[in-house]
Description:
Two copies of one chain form a homodimer. The first copy, chain A, is of the alpha+beta class. The first copy, chain A, has helices at about 15-35, 50-55, 60-65, 80-85, 85-95, 105-115, 160-175, 185-195, 200-210, 210-225, 230-240, 245-260, 270-290, 355-360, 385-400, 410-420, 430-435, 460-465; strands spanning about 40, 45-50, 65-70, 95-100, 120-130, 145-150, 180-185, 295-300, 310-320, 325-330, 345-350, 375-380, 405, 425-430, 440-445, 450-455. The first copy, chain A, has an eight-stranded mixed sheet.
Amino acid sequence: MSVQKPSIPKGTRDFGPVQVARRNYIFGVIRRVFEKFGFAPLETPTMENLSVLTGKYGDEGDQLLFKILNSGDFAKDVTAEDLTAGAKKILPKVAEKGLRYDLTVPFARYVVMNRGQLTLPFKRYQIQPVWRADRPQRGRYREFVQCDADVVGTTSLLCEAEIVLMIDEVLSTLGLTDFTIKINHRGVLSGIYQALGGVGRESDLFVAIDKLDKIGREGVTKELLERGFPQEAVDQVFGYLEVGGSFDAKLAALRTAFKQDGVLTDAAAGPAKGLQDLAEVQQYLQDFGFEHFERLDFDVTLARGLSYYTGCIFEVKVNNVQMGSISGGGRYDNLTGAFGLPGLSGVGFSFGVDRIYDVLEELQLFPEGAVAAPLCLVANFDAEGRGTALPLLRQLRAAGLSAELYPEVSKLKKQFEYADKRGIRFMLLAGSEERAGGVVKLRDMRAGSEQTVPATEVVATLQALA
Amino acid sequence: MSVQKPSIPKGTRDFGPVQVARRNYIFGVIRRVFEKFGFAPLETPTMENLSVLTGKYGDEGDQLLFKILNSGDFAKDVTAEDLTAGAKKILPKVAEKGLRYDLTVPFARYVVMNRGQLTLPFKRYQIQPVWRADRPQRGRYREFVQCDADVVGTTSLLCEAEIVLMIDEVLSTLGLTDFTIKINHRGVLSGIYQALGGVGRESDLFVAIDKLDKIGREGVTKELLERGFPQEAVDQVFGYLEVGGSFDAKLAALRTAFKQDGVLTDAAAGPAKGLQDLAEVQQYLQDFGFEHFERLDFDVTLARGLSYYTGCIFEVKVNNVQMGSISGGGRYDNLTGAFGLPGLSGVGFSFGVDRIYDVLEELQLFPEGAVAAPLCLVANFDAEGRGTALPLLRQLRAAGLSAELYPEVSKLKKQFEYADKRGIRFMLLAGSEERAGGVVKLRDMRAGSEQTVPATEVVATLQALA
Lengths: 466, 466
């Protein structure tokens, strides 16, 4: 075996103790809120058949799928002609499986495969990594964790209201206060493009609208004109996008504008349904006693790219940190259609844990307890000392406290350094002098202070300090 | 998009709510014990460079690695001649990465890459899935989770003693009582093969010895004779393997036998070191006040296949269930040598969660709380009822209870069925009659009983019942 300098694949990361502990803290908060709201966990395999994944994320998505080489003699069916034809021709012969690209398609696959056993509505959450062969850059990784919650099998807008409550509770629990939960509705967006005669060019319009934050009215105007929208239509768009005031005021203003533009043609669909749904979600939140309406923003410019959304859409921004959206989602009416189960409505959303991590770090919101160091290190003096140290250690652990013995009889300085570097809060010293007196010295590494405690009271003392 | 009948890759599994909850219960117990003993979490990427993985698991292991196809035009360097030469020639041109095969090699890679920053001894635990392209069969999957804990950077045998304590605590906490922690030492095994002149043929001997449980003395004799060991040597082996009595008695008998056979040549290594280490581990366990020595078995026939072990080795069997070992490990002296960092001693062990899951299921040891259903379902009557139901729901959740509202106004029968199928324990009913009286009906779905509770006391009542 030759000696090599090891490395990890680009766009991937090792997570050391502090990072894992902090990530688990975030996952724990999300998981508890999901479960409190009645969502049950699901986990799907890392590998999916390419037949399940391909064609679900657009051409670009297909490119970004990580594919698994078939086992054994993978190239046996590849011909020299295939080589000339290129990768596209060869791929189906050498790879049948790929890595999970998101949690939504595996969820849809699971629902279809288990439709006979599932109780609808089915509320599931899923916290698992996904993989994308994207070009790595700051904040964008090839392996990252998504935290999704979805309800399928009901069109009830109570689900949308509960999504707002869950987002608010997760972020509040993590210590965030200055964030905005943006909500919009595909029906409202459809009203806008119907109003300006843009039907069939929705994506042109959405792409431009989505940039309003970044390039401003002038930039969006320029882009829309370049894309061939007439000046009049552009003015009309801004009439819609710049609707202001409270949630209710916006709803009323849009209703008036849609009426004027003659697009409230079908009361049960499109723009009319959009306004009605949003009003209903707001009503539920009021009934729930939601206290943070100032965090909820009906944002007509919110478009979200994913074409499968059909109803309400969500996106969450932290206001006091420069960062993209940390959560998003929406309602979809036909997610399982591709797998032969049409007409199953659902709504879901996702937290982006990597971004939340960065936000909490920047705002210094990680609690101290989120560091995975044991509470206490017992100093290792000698064979005789171990007669006291080992039973003590066992008592501490029996009381649920995390503790370890320095494994070797080393100089105390070295043992102190170890405790210090690992972030261990307390050191327990039972040298010959202490043992003779039936006491233990307890050093608070952070405060730099020491106290002497009867050996019989160490557990209680540390429990009180933990 | 054509409609397709979706499936998952063979050897992989979806985990529904009950399974995830039960698996998380096991992971939680293991994690808490690891942390109580001072181990800190590490997570490494799913993908590793093939240069890191290849050559670490033997030829068979290399075959069983899942390889990731390079992104983009993966076949651009493959020639027609390569096709003729076959998969082995093509592989390095089309794949640079593979899926994690175990947690030990990535750990060694991490230690080497971070040697400058790590505080030694370094105690890490890691709970992550691994992938092997093995032929799937009952109890053997292509994706499964390993739970490893290792200490590197110390030769202290306190670590071995603590491994015994951790295994005992994890399994006891999970409710198991009838299990055996087998311990042996590579030095003892080396003494045996030195004694019978088998040096250089250790693996022949180990493979045969490992089968003693299954094929008995007769079978092992036959196999050893077939492999060319003389009858005399075979008799001698059984003299060693059938050493009986207490831990101490076995140590004494082996010492005598080794002396007679003249293999105690180096007091600091080999068989002498093996006996000494085992005695020291036993002493530490006594100092710790370990109460379950009846579960610890010094088993001279324990060999364990992995060639990197150099000191103590462990394996755990549940006695009252037909099942392979559920945990195992040992000390290794040169795990990081392949990555250019020789001479770093470590010791570690691993729990096999899939097997533990099956054992707990067979013995019906999963606690009820390990089912991820919300505590209570609030019935959905009508718009008016929601004025009561939604604030109630919010109070329950604010108190930390998991609860949900049935999302649609459906017949009560359907709502009851939903609660029943999901395993929801309580149903809360606040119909017009109850609302008029300021009360709520609370139905215990399991007991089939109902009680009427003042609306103001529902939270406290449920908290007491939860």
